[in-house]
Amino acid sequence: MFLAFKELKYAKQKFALIIAVVVLVSYLVYFLTSLAYGLASSYTNAVNKWESDQIIMTVDANDNLMMSFMTQTDFNNTNIDGEKAKIGLFPAVIKNPQEVEDLDTRLNIYLFGIEDDGFLKPTDSNQTLTGNQVIVSDELSKNGYGIGDMIAISGSEIELEIIGFTKNATYQTAPVIYMALSTWQAYRFSTNTPPNLFSGIVVRGEIDSIESKLSSYTIDDYIFTLPGYTAQVLTFTIMIVFLIIIVAFVLGIFVYVLTIQKTSMFGVMKAQGISNGYIAGSVLIQTLLLVGIGIIIGFILTEVSVFFLSDIVPLATNVLFYIIITLAFFLFALFGGLFSVSAVLKIDPLKAIGG
């Protein structure tokens, strides 16, 4: 330990460059992790708010909830051990009816048609959904909308009144608007006398039996059917894993080169009777210190970035992911340091001091 600290103090500039490399790479890995988790969450935030176990839709919908049409009979014939709720899902484009030039106010959203007394209603909003009153994602507040404002739906004469906001309500990265199921049906089927159809049944509990024309999914399985979700998660995962391996490889090279440069010094230490274990331990401690300092700085930079950029890009913090990545950094760095240790153990004191 003493040797590791003494050398760090003696060669500050040399070790500062190594730490800078670790900082940059760890910052990149943490930032990409925050971005990946933020994007994945923006796909599924609204689904996770259901706090449900399964979802049912028609087989003909081919895993696409928006293409599923279910009837009251389907709902009645679905036997579950728990709770069930109807859901209507459809995309839309909204605009601000108060603006003369409304092109800049248009926004892609998803409409969730729900029953007011069902568990799909956001728990952080106590307003009653009736008529054209809606509860909207707090993402719309960033676009200047407030309580009591009206929202127009492009291609429709329906106007919606905002009566409340709910946090973290996004679906496939777009904000969600919760409305009464009857209002959703009027928009979905473009008529004042719409059929009593909806998209699916969300279940809390276990499904006992459903009709053959229906198909059930666990919430996790349903999430992986969302277009682009799997590809996005796999892409970021592969990038992050390779970055961790690369930084460990680079750090191992740095430490190995530094160790070889100190061959004569280690030879003198061995000739003085200092054990291989002490020297090897100093090399490993030095490696872990370099990684630790670099990771701490990289993590701080990431949290600062999340704080200032989360309103612009979908960044989110996941402590579990950070812990796993940090442990991976230390583990791979330790393996890299072991190559240096093997070089130390092979040093012949007589040859190292020029004998």
TrEMBL record:
GO cellular component: plasma membrane
PANTHER family named in the record: ABC TRANSPORTER, MEMBRANE PROTEIN, HEMIN TRANSPORT SYSTEM PERMEASE PROTEIN HRTB-RELATED
Domain ABC3 transporter permease C-terminal residue range list: 238-349
Keywords: Cell membrane, Membrane, Transmembrane, Transmembrane helix, Transport
Major localisation: membrane
Protein name: ABC transporter, periplasmic-binding/permease protein
Subcellular location field: Cell membrane
Transmembrane segments: 15-39, 233-258, 278-301, 321-345
Membrane topology qualifier: Multi-pass membrane protein
